[in-house]
Amino acid sequence: MGKIFISYSTKNQKVANALCEYLERQGVSCWIAPRDIPSASNYAGEITRAIKSCERFLLVYSKDAGKSVHVKNEVNLAINNTKAILPYCLDDSPYDDDLEYYLSTRQKIASCGVQDQDFQNIATLLLGHPVASPREKTETAAPVAKGKQPNKKILYYILGALVLVALLVWLFILRPKPGPRPEPGKPVDSLLVDTTARVPEVKKDTVSTPPATGDTRKDNTTIDNTKKDNTKKEVVKNELADTFTGTIRNGYPDGYGTYTFKQPRRIDMHDPEKRMAQKGDYIKGDWTNGHLNYGEWYGADGVKKGNIELGDNAADADHVFAKCVKP
Domain range spanning residue 319? Predict the structure, then answer.
């Protein structure tokens, strides 16, 4: 079976990821964003190629998915490329007007309210044969035959032999050998080793006077203070600029990548919630000419703060995000 493309709204991402993991454990190969989009790749291009190459199109539908522009674009691509579409409906909300024309005649799987049962039904439909639930597999597991259990007496014999070998090695190889015994009438002090000859004589006149300018290292080499000052100036300049790991066009993010804030600022002027990013926050998402189309917002501690889905604002002339540099 070829790959299954999973389409979903960002508000249903948790369910979509759990469904993807379950299907792959059953042997069904899946493609899901943003997991399968390489870093710094074109977000829209990767999704288009994945839909064209997939065998089936699995839509996680909900009221939120009906409002998503990206979901509608993906369904339209699947229809244009004659892909088999399987809607998995999380709730009883009717299809959006833009989707009803395509999905009203399609077979769908309505949620029964139990996620494990829903996933099992989807896997059974995709594979064409019943799939046992994890609970059933545990109850029907065959017990271990008693005849195959290792003999405890043999293990004890092997352990005792290993201990005996280790003792013999210590006695005849590793144990420290005693020193020479003094001869009768010879003082014991004569057997001591004179270690004074091994101490090298310290030459007091080898330390040179450090130069008048510059810092001095232990090996008497000097450090140019001018170079240290120039380095500090460059670091301060870079610390004030936001960074972006993807493509930067005319100083602004363009394409898929990670944008890191170096100072507090509003995320996007088109954001109806007027959310503010703090220093160290970062966004993984897709930009068009400095405008954020879709992204996942994380704090400096790596904890996810939310999803941002604004659509393509490339037609606007103004730039929302500040100019950025490579990290």
Answer: 242-325
